[in-house]
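Example S7 (structure tokens).
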């Protein structure tokens, strides 16, 4: 199937930017927090966009949806972020129809992740689909596509070892600490921000550093306390942030703020301080590097760190790609079926009209007319005829579009094909 028309004149697009061409600062300009995502979806609804999926992580921001032209989606993104169209054009990508589908499969399956085999994006896709559904912005096409991508990612995770070793930013950050900080078990570690990345980082810190001097701070204290209780860690008030920074040897920042929350003025200590900024947009001001005792590492730096397992993970890419191909083929088969479903439905209704008219005629002609038996026989014949046409339309050797037009013409059918 060469084109993915869902509504007349619209196409399926994937537009966005990622770590591949956009650095952390630019990605920060286009990042969407939860409120911005909701505002974007609301604007899409008001703009009569039929179906739309929005994802924004530390590594990428993407929109998957239907539009007459990709600029409609680009405008939605720029209207709800600090990014401009000019910036977008410099670093972004636009995929259409078949390429857009292939892109979502690679992203959801961890093959396009900043750290190969990172499957954290799949939970984002699931959540994005749920939110879009609440806005009535999830048509059968995207809903089925997301489910297919989830299926592929599950198979890749279970049938390959592509996710062995450091497969996420949170793990890579802890690995970096282990590789660069001596006597890490006895260092004071402060984790500022307990969102998803913060939670995962905390879990990896506890598991791999054996450190009992980990303190958590979050703007909403009860969220930090919920995590701290799980690992028996210390929680401090947000108002104590500066004091705790100066008590720390290692500071990990994983907040969701749109502007830097830590700068050089927060740091009064003269002892060595390692800062890891795992946030997009950046939540640590670059001016901290003006201090001789401070080392600043951003998540883009972490992705460059390779370990021995990376080459092993790369060996599993061909198998992962084969799994994607299989699931994608199943999706395309479903799509082909959806393409001619309205015509088959219209044909069935037309044949049913013939049946009703003929039964009415025979009922008047035959005195002991067996209504029940005639109904069963007629329905069976209708089902066999429609099944025959459906099998014909599934044949790869025939042109589906030409056959559909012929069926419509012969039986004088009127079909509605708004949703494939």
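Recovered sequence:
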């Amino acid at each position: 199937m060469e084109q993915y028309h869902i509504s007349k004149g619209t196409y399926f697009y994937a537009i966005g930017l990622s770590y591949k061409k956009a650095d952390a600062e630019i990605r920060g300009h286009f990042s969407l927090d939860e409120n911005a995502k909701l505002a974007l979806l609301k604007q899409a609804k008001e703009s009569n966009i039929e179906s739309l999926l929005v994802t924004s992580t530390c590594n990428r921001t993407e929109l998957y949806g239907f539009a007459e032209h990709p600029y409609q989606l680009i405008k939605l993104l720029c209207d709800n972020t600090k990014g401009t169209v000019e910036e977008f054009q410099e670093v972004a990508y636009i995929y259409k129809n078949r390429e857009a589908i292939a892109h979502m499969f690679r992203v959801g399956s961890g093959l396009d992740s900043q750290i190969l085999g990172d499957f954290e994006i799949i939970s984002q896709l699931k959540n994005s689909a749920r939110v879009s559904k609440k806005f009535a912005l999830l048509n059968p096409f995207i809903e089925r596509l997301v489910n297919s991508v989830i299926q592929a990612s599950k198979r890749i995770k279970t049938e390959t070892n592509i996710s062995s070793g450091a497969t996420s930013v949170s793990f890579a950050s802890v690995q970096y600490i282990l590789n660069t900080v001596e006597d890490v078990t006895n260092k004071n570690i402060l984790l500022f921000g307990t969102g998803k990345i913060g939670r995962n980082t905390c879990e990896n810190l506890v598991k791999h550093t054996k450190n009992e001097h980990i303190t958590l701070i979050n703007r909403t204290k009860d969220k930090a306390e919920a995590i701290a209780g799980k690992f028996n860690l210390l929680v401090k008030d947000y108002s104590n942030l500066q004091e705790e920074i100066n008590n720390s040897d290692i500071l990990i920042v994983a907040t969701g703020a749109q502007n830097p929350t830590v700068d050089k003025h927060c740091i009064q200590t003269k002892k060595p301080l390692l800062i890891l900024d795992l946030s997009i947009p950046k939540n640590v001001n670059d001016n901290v590097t003006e201090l001789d005792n401070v080392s600043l590492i951003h998540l883009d730096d972490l992705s460059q760190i390779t370990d021995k397992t990376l080459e092993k993970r790369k060996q599993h890419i061909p198998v992962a790609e084969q799994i994607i191909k299989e699931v994608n083929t199943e999706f395309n088969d479903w799509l082909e079926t959806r393409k001619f479903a309205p015509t088959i439905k219209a044909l069935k209704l037309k044949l049913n009209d013939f049946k009703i008219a003929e039964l009415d005629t025979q009922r008047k002609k035959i005195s002991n007319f067996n209504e029940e038996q005639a109904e069963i026989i007629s329905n069976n014949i209708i089902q066999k005829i429609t099944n025959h046409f459906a099998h014909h339309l599934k044949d790869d050797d025939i042109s589906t579009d030409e056959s559909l037009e012929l069926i419509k013409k012969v039986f004088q059918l009127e079909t509605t094909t708004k949703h494939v």
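Notes on this example. The two ends are 13 Å apart (CA to CA).
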